[in-house]
Amino acid sequence: MWLLAVTVAAATLVVIVTRGSWSRLAQLPIRGSGFFLAGLIIQVALGIVDFAPRHIDSLGFGLLMLSYALLLTFCLINIRLRGMTVIVLGIALNALVIGLNQGMPTRSVGIDERGDRVEQTFERTVKHRPASGDDLLGFLGDEILPPKPFNALISIGDIVIALGICTLAFFGSRRDRSGDRRQTGTSDRRSKARSSTARTRPSYT
Q1: Residue 119: exposed, middle, or buried by beta-carbon count in 10 A (0-12, 13-18, 19+)?
Q2: 142 has which bridge partners?
Q3: What's the confidence (pLDDT) of residue 179?
Q4: Is 0.90 surpassed by the pTM of this model?
Q5: 81: closest CA among 15, 167, 12?
Q6: Quick check: 93 pLDDT over 60?
Q7: Can you list the pairs that 145-153 forms with residues at least 24 positions away whose Cβ atoms lie under 8 Å?
Q8: Contact 122, 131 (CB under 8 A)
Q9: What pLDDT is recorded for position 205?
Q10: What pLDDT sits at residue 177?
Q11: Residue 112's pLDDT band (boundaries 50, 70, 90)?
């Protein structure tokens, strides 16, 4: 959850620092929002619902992969938006390592009584499971430990998604200069046409 907050803050800062247009960003032609909402709701539900161990690798894993399929569908529908390709790559990386290992390989980190980071075991969930040496593409799992005060591990895919969101915010808040040039060129041609018509119009006086 902290990564989402940091990403939103970073994207907001990008728009402010680069003097982007919030109205322009709000008018992005987003399509297929239902796919995004459905995927997000499933992921949130999977983090709340306590699955029995016998259902984690069946029902739980199936729902998890469905959520990624929905999120990827949403991104692919909007792939023409600049920055969405990067987001697709990040989601695909996470989905790949989860699909290969039936869960995100995770190196658990906890906090001891002195506030130091220590390795600790944790119970497997639908999305996360303890990392092992047999993991396929394990380096794509939750292996990156950010500096304090952040104590949750993140993956390469998570970082790519964050970069993609910031890229989308940057380009989405830009004025469409090519569109402005086209509009200006059209206006100029119309003005010239009107002037030419006025000069060639016959006089009856």
Answers
A1: exposed
A2: 106
A3: 44
A4: no
A5: 167
A6: yes
A7: 145/107, 145/109, 145/117, 148/117, 150/2, 151/109, 151/110, 151/111, 151/117, 152/2, 152/3, 152/109, 153/106, 153/107, 153/108, 153/109
A8: no
A9: 41
A10: 54
A11: low
